[in-house]
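Deliverable D4.2, example record:
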Amino acid sequence: MLKKILFLALAISLTNCLVLNPAGASLDREKGSEAASRITDAAIQTDLINSVVLTGRGSISIFSLIAPDIAKIESDKYYIKSDVDACVNEIKGFKGYLLGSLITNIISCQDISSDGFITGEPFPVF
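Output generated by the structure prediction step:
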């Protein structure tokens, strides 16, 4: 009986990531649409602050609106939340205000990889 309980607990813990990550139920994962929204908000905020400081009036660039596309975020996939947080913090941080949201996005947000059922990390992409 104890062996069955231990086997069941081990099986649940091993398949937990395979079931919960694609469903978006894991705590350290974030849906692509949410990640895209956060990256867009950070880019718009950075552009607004930069434009007010430099010209005295608020404006945003088209690159702020397509920031998730530049970061290669797909809305139907899941991403590691800490990677998305690091990208957003870079865009909102000193580097974002110094270089602008576009260049910071290109430099800091290109290493965000999707986390999926079979083709996500660490499995190869087919």
